[in-house]
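#struct-help
A.M.: can someone run this one for me? Single chain, 368 residues.
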Amino acid sequence: MLDFAWKMARNTPKPNLNSPLLGIAARNAWDLSFGDGIAPVERTPSELIFEGHHRDLYRFAGTGTGRPVLLVPPLAAPAQCFDLRPGQSLAAHLSDQGHATYVVDYGEMHYSDRHLGFEYWTEDVLPEAIRRVSDAHDGADVDLIGWSLGGTLALLTAASHPELPIRSLTALGTPIDYSETYFEPLRALGKVISERPVTAFTWALGGVPAPLVQVGFRLTALQRELTKPWFVARNLHETEALARMEAVDRFQSQMPGYPARLFHQMSAQLVLDNALKQGSATVGGRRIELATVSVPALAIGSPDDTLAPAASVAYAPKALTGSPRVRYETVRGSHLGLVAGPNARETSWAHIDSFFEETALPAEASAV
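D.P.: on it. C-alpha coordinates below:
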Protein backbone atom coordinates (compact mmCIF):
# COMPACT_ATOMS: atom_id res chain seq x y z
CA MET A 1 0.00 0.00 0.00
CA LEU A 2 2.86 2.41 0.83
CA ASP A 3 4.53 1.53 -2.46
CA PHE A 4 1.31 2.39 -4.27
CA ALA A 5 1.08 5.72 -2.46
CA TRP A 6 4.70 6.52 -3.36
CA LYS A 7 4.03 5.83 -7.04
CA MET A 8 1.00 8.11 -6.86
CA ALA A 9 3.12 10.87 -5.37
CA ARG A 10 5.80 10.49 -8.06
CA ASN A 11 3.17 10.63 -10.81
CA THR A 12 1.43 13.74 -9.48
CA PRO A 13 1.92 16.37 -12.21
CA LYS A 14 3.69 19.63 -11.49
CA PRO A 15 1.43 22.68 -11.66
CA ASN A 16 1.68 24.86 -14.75
CA LEU A 17 1.92 28.40 -13.41
CA ASN A 18 0.82 29.80 -16.76
CA SER A 19 -2.28 27.64 -16.99
CA PRO A 20 -5.68 29.39 -16.88
CA LEU A 21 -6.78 26.49 -14.67
CA LEU A 22 -4.53 27.71 -11.89
CA GLY A 23 -7.21 30.10 -10.67
CA ILE A 24 -9.75 27.28 -10.52
CA ALA A 25 -7.27 25.12 -8.60
CA ALA A 26 -6.56 27.93 -6.14
CA ARG A 27 -10.26 28.53 -5.53
CA ASN A 28 -10.92 24.84 -5.03
CA ALA A 29 -7.99 24.56 -2.62
CA TRP A 30 -9.39 27.46 -0.60
CA ASP A 31 -12.93 26.02 -0.58
CA LEU A 32 -11.67 22.64 0.59
CA SER A 33 -9.41 24.06 3.30
CA PHE A 34 -11.15 27.17 4.61
CA GLY A 35 -14.44 27.59 2.77
CA ASP A 36 -17.79 25.81 2.85
CA GLY A 37 -16.69 23.08 0.48
CA ILE A 38 -16.63 22.60 -3.26
CA ALA A 39 -20.38 22.35 -3.82
CA PRO A 40 -23.40 22.87 -1.58
CA VAL A 41 -25.55 19.95 -0.54
CA GLU A 42 -28.14 19.57 -3.30
CA ARG A 43 -30.79 16.87 -3.06
CA THR A 44 -33.59 15.93 -5.39
CA PRO A 45 -36.74 17.61 -4.00
CA SER A 46 -38.99 15.17 -2.18
CA GLU A 47 -42.21 15.17 -0.17
CA LEU A 48 -42.74 13.39 3.14
CA ILE A 49 -45.94 11.40 2.66
CA PHE A 50 -45.83 9.31 5.82
CA GLU A 51 -43.95 9.70 9.09
CA GLY A 52 -43.28 6.95 11.61
CA HIS A 53 -40.66 5.33 13.81
CA HIS A 54 -37.76 4.40 11.48
CA ARG A 55 -40.15 4.42 8.50
CA ASP A 56 -40.48 7.92 7.05
CA LEU A 57 -41.68 7.55 3.47
CA TYR A 58 -40.75 10.13 0.84
CA ARG A 59 -41.85 10.59 -2.75
CA PHE A 60 -39.41 12.38 -4.99
CA ALA A 61 -40.78 15.45 -6.72
CA GLY A 62 -41.05 15.47 -10.48
CA THR A 63 -41.69 11.73 -10.63
CA GLY A 64 -43.92 10.45 -13.36
CA THR A 65 -47.07 8.36 -13.18
CA GLY A 66 -45.28 5.22 -14.35
CA ARG A 67 -44.53 2.09 -12.34
CA PRO A 68 -43.89 2.81 -8.64
CA VAL A 69 -40.39 2.12 -7.34
CA LEU A 70 -39.42 1.89 -3.66
CA LEU A 71 -35.75 2.44 -2.79
CA VAL A 72 -34.64 0.38 0.22
CA PRO A 73 -31.50 1.64 2.00
CA PRO A 74 -29.45 -0.57 4.30
CA LEU A 75 -29.22 -0.17 8.02
CA ALA A 76 -26.22 1.92 9.14
CA ALA A 77 -26.42 4.07 6.02
CA PRO A 78 -28.53 7.16 5.39
CA ALA A 79 -31.24 7.05 2.76
CA GLN A 80 -29.24 9.71 0.89
CA CYS A 81 -27.20 6.85 -0.61
CA PHE A 82 -29.74 6.98 -3.45
CA ASP A 83 -29.51 10.76 -3.80
CA LEU A 84 -26.01 12.08 -3.03
CA ARG A 85 -26.04 14.99 -5.47
CA PRO A 86 -26.92 15.79 -9.11
CA GLY A 87 -25.26 13.17 -11.29
CA GLN A 88 -24.95 10.81 -8.32
CA SER A 89 -28.65 10.24 -7.75
CA LEU A 90 -30.34 6.99 -8.69
CA ALA A 91 -33.56 8.56 -7.40
CA ALA A 92 -33.31 11.43 -9.87
CA HIS A 93 -32.45 9.03 -12.69
CA LEU A 94 -35.50 6.87 -12.02
CA SER A 95 -37.71 9.95 -11.82
CA ASP A 96 -36.31 11.16 -15.13
CA GLN A 97 -37.29 7.79 -16.62
CA GLY A 98 -40.89 8.49 -15.62
CA HIS A 99 -41.08 6.20 -12.59
CA ALA A 100 -42.92 7.20 -9.43
CA THR A 101 -39.95 6.98 -7.08
CA TYR A 102 -40.12 6.59 -3.29
CA VAL A 103 -37.61 5.95 -0.52
CA VAL A 104 -38.06 4.76 3.05
CA ASP A 105 -35.84 6.55 5.57
CA TYR A 106 -35.00 4.83 8.87
CA GLY A 107 -33.42 7.87 10.49
CA GLU A 108 -30.90 7.63 13.32
CA MET A 109 -30.48 4.67 15.65
CA HIS A 110 -30.34 5.12 19.42
CA TYR A 111 -29.70 3.00 22.48
CA SER A 112 -33.45 2.60 22.90
CA ASP A 113 -33.51 0.78 19.53
CA ARG A 114 -31.16 -1.97 20.72
CA HIS A 115 -33.97 -4.58 20.71
CA LEU A 116 -34.81 -4.08 17.01
CA GLY A 117 -33.88 -6.92 14.68
CA PHE A 118 -34.43 -7.94 11.08
CA GLU A 119 -38.06 -8.75 11.83
CA TYR A 120 -38.83 -5.13 12.66
CA TRP A 121 -38.04 -4.15 9.08
CA THR A 122 -39.09 -7.28 7.19
CA GLU A 123 -42.35 -7.85 9.10
CA ASP A 124 -43.38 -4.26 9.79
CA VAL A 125 -41.52 -1.32 8.24
CA LEU A 126 -41.07 -2.53 4.65
CA PRO A 127 -44.42 -4.32 4.23
CA GLU A 128 -46.16 -1.15 5.38
CA ALA A 129 -44.11 1.02 3.01
CA ILE A 130 -44.77 -1.32 0.07
CA ARG A 131 -48.51 -1.29 0.73
CA ARG A 132 -48.61 2.49 1.07
CA VAL A 133 -46.79 2.96 -2.23
CA SER A 134 -49.05 0.41 -3.92
CA ASP A 135 -52.20 2.02 -2.53
CA ALA A 136 -51.06 5.40 -3.87
CA HIS A 137 -51.07 3.84 -7.35
CA ASP A 138 -54.40 2.01 -7.28
CA GLY A 139 -52.91 -1.26 -6.05
CA ALA A 140 -50.09 -1.45 -8.60
CA ASP A 141 -47.19 -3.78 -7.91
CA VAL A 142 -44.03 -2.10 -6.64
CA ASP A 143 -40.45 -2.53 -7.83
CA LEU A 144 -37.99 -2.79 -4.92
CA ILE A 145 -34.38 -1.61 -5.28
CA GLY A 146 -32.07 -2.28 -2.34
CA TRP A 147 -28.42 -1.46 -1.91
CA SER A 148 -26.11 -3.55 0.29
CA LEU A 149 -28.03 -4.77 3.35
CA GLY A 150 -31.07 -2.98 1.90
CA GLY A 151 -31.11 -5.71 -0.73
CA THR A 152 -31.09 -8.31 2.04
CA LEU A 153 -34.03 -6.60 3.73
CA ALA A 154 -35.93 -6.51 0.43
CA LEU A 155 -35.23 -10.20 -0.28
CA LEU A 156 -36.27 -11.35 3.19
CA THR A 157 -39.41 -9.20 3.07
CA ALA A 158 -40.45 -10.64 -0.29
CA ALA A 159 -39.69 -14.18 0.89
CA SER A 160 -41.60 -13.69 4.13
CA HIS A 161 -44.62 -12.04 2.48
CA PRO A 162 -45.34 -13.49 -0.98
CA GLU A 163 -48.75 -11.80 -0.81
CA LEU A 164 -47.22 -8.31 -0.98
CA PRO A 165 -47.71 -6.32 -4.22
CA ILE A 166 -44.11 -6.65 -5.44
CA ARG A 167 -43.31 -6.69 -9.14
CA SER A 168 -39.53 -7.16 -9.03
CA LEU A 169 -36.44 -7.05 -6.84
CA THR A 170 -33.11 -5.41 -7.57
CA ALA A 171 -30.15 -5.90 -5.21
CA LEU A 172 -26.98 -3.87 -5.67
CA GLY A 173 -23.89 -5.11 -3.82
CA THR A 174 -25.94 -7.51 -1.69
CA PRO A 175 -23.89 -10.54 -0.58
CA ILE A 176 -25.53 -13.95 -0.52
CA ASP A 177 -22.44 -16.11 0.04
CA TYR A 178 -20.55 -14.57 2.95
CA SER A 179 -17.65 -17.00 2.54
CA GLU A 180 -16.70 -14.84 -0.46
CA THR A 181 -16.61 -11.59 1.54
CA TYR A 182 -13.91 -9.99 3.65
CA PHE A 183 -15.81 -11.42 6.64
CA GLU A 184 -14.33 -14.86 5.89
CA PRO A 185 -11.45 -14.50 8.44
CA LEU A 186 -14.06 -13.51 11.04
CA ARG A 187 -16.12 -16.55 10.11
CA ALA A 188 -13.13 -18.80 10.69
CA LEU A 189 -12.43 -17.15 14.05
CA GLY A 190 -16.10 -17.25 15.00
CA LYS A 191 -16.25 -21.01 14.50
CA VAL A 192 -13.71 -21.28 17.34
CA ILE A 193 -14.87 -18.61 19.80
CA SER A 194 -18.44 -17.97 18.52
CA GLU A 195 -19.85 -14.47 18.11
CA ARG A 196 -20.55 -13.97 21.82
CA PRO A 197 -17.50 -11.85 22.78
CA VAL A 198 -18.35 -9.31 20.09
CA THR A 199 -22.10 -9.35 20.56
CA ALA A 200 -21.81 -9.04 24.35
CA PHE A 201 -19.78 -5.87 23.85
CA THR A 202 -22.18 -4.41 21.29
CA TRP A 203 -25.22 -5.31 23.38
CA ALA A 204 -23.75 -3.30 26.25
CA LEU A 205 -23.41 -0.36 23.87
CA GLY A 206 -26.90 -0.88 22.47
CA GLY A 207 -25.45 -1.78 19.07
CA VAL A 208 -22.60 -0.60 16.88
CA PRO A 209 -22.25 3.18 17.42
CA ALA A 210 -22.25 5.45 14.39
CA PRO A 211 -18.55 6.46 14.74
CA LEU A 212 -17.48 2.80 14.57
CA VAL A 213 -19.64 2.20 11.51
CA GLN A 214 -18.16 5.26 9.82
CA VAL A 215 -14.60 4.16 10.54
CA GLY A 216 -15.37 0.62 9.42
CA PHE A 217 -16.83 1.80 6.12
CA ARG A 218 -13.76 3.92 5.46
CA LEU A 219 -11.51 0.94 6.16
CA THR A 220 -13.27 -1.04 3.44
CA ALA A 221 -11.95 1.59 1.01
CA LEU A 222 -8.54 2.04 2.64
CA GLN A 223 -6.77 2.68 -0.65
CA ARG A 224 -9.15 5.57 -1.36
CA GLU A 225 -8.50 7.07 2.07
CA LEU A 226 -4.70 6.75 1.83
CA THR A 227 -4.49 8.18 -1.69
CA LYS A 228 -6.98 10.99 -1.16
CA PRO A 229 -4.26 13.69 -0.76
CA TRP A 230 -2.80 12.75 -4.15
CA PHE A 231 -6.26 12.57 -5.70
CA VAL A 232 -6.93 16.11 -4.49
CA ALA A 233 -3.54 17.33 -5.72
CA ARG A 234 -4.07 15.84 -9.17
CA ASN A 235 -7.64 17.12 -9.47
CA LEU A 236 -7.55 20.58 -7.89
CA HIS A 237 -8.58 22.03 -11.25
CA GLU A 238 -11.35 19.40 -11.70
CA THR A 239 -14.24 20.83 -9.72
CA GLU A 240 -16.65 18.04 -10.62
CA ALA A 241 -14.24 15.31 -9.46
CA LEU A 242 -13.73 17.09 -6.15
CA ALA A 243 -17.48 17.58 -5.72
CA ARG A 244 -18.01 13.83 -6.16
CA MET A 245 -15.33 13.12 -3.57
CA GLU A 246 -16.87 15.62 -1.19
CA ALA A 247 -20.34 14.06 -1.57
CA VAL A 248 -18.95 10.63 -0.64
CA ASP A 249 -17.13 12.09 2.38
CA ARG A 250 -20.34 13.75 3.58
CA PHE A 251 -22.24 10.52 3.15
CA GLN A 252 -19.68 8.57 5.18
CA SER A 253 -19.80 11.11 8.00
CA GLN A 254 -23.61 10.73 8.29
CA MET A 255 -23.77 6.93 8.64
CA PRO A 256 -25.85 5.87 11.68
CA GLY A 257 -25.22 2.79 13.80
CA TYR A 258 -26.65 -0.73 13.97
CA PRO A 259 -29.19 -1.79 16.61
CA ALA A 260 -27.74 -4.48 18.87
CA ARG A 261 -30.26 -7.23 18.04
CA LEU A 262 -29.90 -6.78 14.29
CA PHE A 263 -26.10 -6.77 14.53
CA HIS A 264 -26.25 -10.00 16.53
CA GLN A 265 -28.50 -11.61 13.91
CA MET A 266 -26.12 -10.52 11.16
CA SER A 267 -23.10 -11.89 13.01
CA ALA A 268 -24.65 -15.25 13.89
CA GLN A 269 -26.75 -16.00 10.81
CA LEU A 270 -25.38 -14.12 7.83
CA VAL A 271 -21.68 -14.16 8.66
CA LEU A 272 -20.99 -17.24 10.81
CA ASP A 273 -23.72 -19.59 9.56
CA ASN A 274 -23.76 -18.21 6.00
CA ALA A 275 -27.51 -18.74 6.16
CA LEU A 276 -28.43 -16.99 2.92
CA LYS A 277 -26.19 -19.31 0.91
CA GLN A 278 -28.06 -22.18 2.53
CA GLY A 279 -31.26 -20.58 1.24
CA SER A 280 -32.96 -19.46 4.43
CA ALA A 281 -32.78 -17.31 7.55
CA THR A 282 -34.66 -17.26 10.83
CA VAL A 283 -36.49 -13.97 11.32
CA GLY A 284 -38.62 -13.35 14.38
CA GLY A 285 -38.59 -17.04 15.23
CA ARG A 286 -39.82 -17.95 11.74
CA ARG A 287 -37.78 -19.71 9.07
CA ILE A 288 -37.77 -17.69 5.84
CA GLU A 289 -36.92 -19.54 2.62
CA LEU A 290 -35.42 -17.49 -0.21
CA ALA A 291 -36.93 -20.00 -2.64
CA THR A 292 -40.35 -18.47 -1.92
CA VAL A 293 -39.36 -15.27 -3.74
CA SER A 294 -41.57 -15.55 -6.81
CA VAL A 295 -40.83 -12.32 -8.70
CA PRO A 296 -38.08 -11.48 -11.22
CA ALA A 297 -34.81 -10.42 -9.60
CA LEU A 298 -31.72 -8.52 -10.65
CA ALA A 299 -28.44 -8.78 -8.73
CA ILE A 300 -25.50 -6.51 -9.51
CA GLY A 301 -21.99 -7.05 -8.17
CA SER A 302 -18.51 -5.66 -8.72
CA PRO A 303 -15.03 -7.22 -8.49
CA ASP A 304 -13.88 -3.85 -7.11
CA ASP A 305 -16.29 -4.06 -4.18
CA THR A 306 -14.29 -4.97 -1.07
CA LEU A 307 -17.36 -5.17 1.17
CA ALA A 308 -19.47 -7.44 -1.05
CA PRO A 309 -17.25 -8.84 -3.83
CA ALA A 310 -18.86 -9.95 -7.06
CA ALA A 311 -18.49 -13.64 -6.14
CA SER A 312 -20.62 -13.16 -3.02
CA VAL A 313 -23.38 -11.46 -5.01
CA ALA A 314 -23.23 -13.88 -7.95
CA TYR A 315 -24.73 -16.65 -5.83
CA ALA A 316 -28.17 -15.01 -6.09
CA PRO A 317 -29.44 -17.15 -9.02
CA LYS A 318 -28.65 -20.32 -7.03
CA ALA A 319 -30.46 -19.04 -3.93
CA LEU A 320 -33.57 -17.58 -5.58
CA THR A 321 -34.75 -20.83 -7.12
CA GLY A 322 -38.43 -19.84 -7.00
CA SER A 323 -37.99 -16.71 -9.06
CA PRO A 324 -39.15 -16.93 -12.69
CA ARG A 325 -36.01 -15.11 -13.78
CA VAL A 326 -32.86 -14.06 -11.93
CA ARG A 327 -30.45 -11.85 -13.81
CA TYR A 328 -26.92 -11.28 -12.54
CA GLU A 329 -24.68 -8.51 -13.87
CA THR A 330 -21.08 -7.56 -13.11
CA VAL A 331 -19.95 -3.94 -13.31
CA ARG A 332 -16.89 -2.03 -12.15
CA GLY A 333 -17.02 0.24 -9.12
CA SER A 334 -16.74 0.38 -5.36
CA HIS A 335 -19.50 -0.66 -2.96
CA LEU A 336 -21.03 2.82 -2.94
CA GLY A 337 -19.99 3.29 -6.56
CA LEU A 338 -22.53 0.64 -7.59
CA VAL A 339 -25.34 2.99 -6.67
CA ALA A 340 -23.73 6.43 -6.88
CA GLY A 341 -20.40 6.16 -8.73
CA PRO A 342 -19.30 8.36 -11.63
CA ASN A 343 -19.97 5.51 -14.09
CA ALA A 344 -23.17 4.20 -12.47
CA ARG A 345 -25.39 5.76 -15.15
CA GLU A 346 -23.70 3.69 -17.86
CA THR A 347 -23.42 0.51 -15.76
CA SER A 348 -25.69 -0.23 -12.79
CA TRP A 349 -28.43 2.23 -13.72
CA ALA A 350 -28.42 1.03 -17.34
CA HIS A 351 -28.90 -2.56 -16.16
CA ILE A 352 -31.81 -1.47 -13.96
CA ASP A 353 -33.39 0.33 -16.93
CA SER A 354 -33.14 -2.72 -19.18
CA PHE A 355 -34.36 -5.01 -16.37
CA PHE A 356 -37.43 -2.80 -15.96
CA GLU A 357 -38.06 -3.03 -19.70
CA GLU A 358 -37.86 -6.83 -19.48
CA THR A 359 -40.34 -6.94 -16.61
CA ALA A 360 -42.81 -4.43 -18.05
CA LEU A 361 -46.43 -5.47 -18.25
CA PRO A 362 -47.83 -6.01 -21.77
CA ALA A 363 -49.78 -2.73 -21.59
CA GLU A 364 -46.64 -0.86 -20.56
CA ALA A 365 -44.55 -2.49 -23.26
CA SER A 366 -47.04 -1.51 -25.97
CA ALA A 367 -47.07 2.05 -24.71
CA VAL A 368 -43.30 2.45 -25.06
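A.M.: thanks! Residues 298 and 327 are 5 Å apart (CA to CA).
D.P.: also worth noting: The two ends are 50 Å apart (CA to CA).
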